[in-house]
Amino acid sequence: MVVLPREISDIVKNPSKEFEENPIGILEIISFACEAEFDLDETVFDAAVAKVKLIDSVSVDQIRTLFEKIISSKRAGKGLTLLARVGALDCILGDEVTQKLSKAEKEDLSIYVENIDKTMQTRLRRIALFYKCLAPKKAEAAIKKLGYSEEDENFLLDGVYLLDKIYFLTNKYDLKKFLVKYGLERYEFLNNLSKAQRIVYDLPVNRVTSRQYVLDNIKEFNEPIFVEDLAIGQQDLRDEGIDEKDFDRILDELLDLSHMKPNLNTKKDMLEHARKYSKNKWAATFKKLKYIK
User: Fold this and answer.
1) Number of domains in the chain
2) Average pLDDT of 39-55?
3) Taking the complete model, does pTM exceed 0.85, yes or no?
4) Is residue 122 exposed (0-12), middle (13-18) or buried (19+ Cβ within 10 Å)?
């Protein structure tokens, strides 16, 4: 027999009154149902449906906190199903989103709910994959509605807008350019998100494993990824008498060269090309014509 906490016990005894006085109790009892072997009886369920619109009066911080707790639980699928059945998804996503869900979005959400419990209980990863079920603009609006921290919001938006891009990182050059543009931390979040997505939607594993193989190979041979990995730096350019206003441009061009030809990342070769790029601003542009087919 489940031992009910006092606040949950009070709800069970008189759900309509409790939800009227404390609407967040609807999310609290759903959260409890995700953590314990507990199901909402008909009286509690009906009261939640009747009072669900009152959740709009609750602070967004309370709503977000309980949504995160539900989606991070062992029975997240059960919790999301209850949220949908009582109509509480409106307060999570917003009426504009829930009332205009496309057939594809509904199908993705259905598969997500069915399989999300198979993934690790990683808060931000599960939330990001939840929003990925929606079209980008809808997802962005729903994310902003719940007032996440700036850091969390940035990761969630990466999931919405960048997750699909990493599936096209099939070679060293493209992967290095992606890492330079977005950074290793953002890439690792997206890479882990893609692993969870593969589990939920039963996708082929080859893209994940091949991408990992490429990154491991880059690390194994100590190939340069970031500008600080180059064999030379600003002081070397200064010693060569190169104008400081050209430093950033030249280092970026050298980095791009080293991405294509990592064997050239030696001080001798880098300085040779730095001198060439300092004298001819078009040299680095035309070098790609030799390598990119």
Assistant:
1) 3
2) 94
3) yes
4) middle
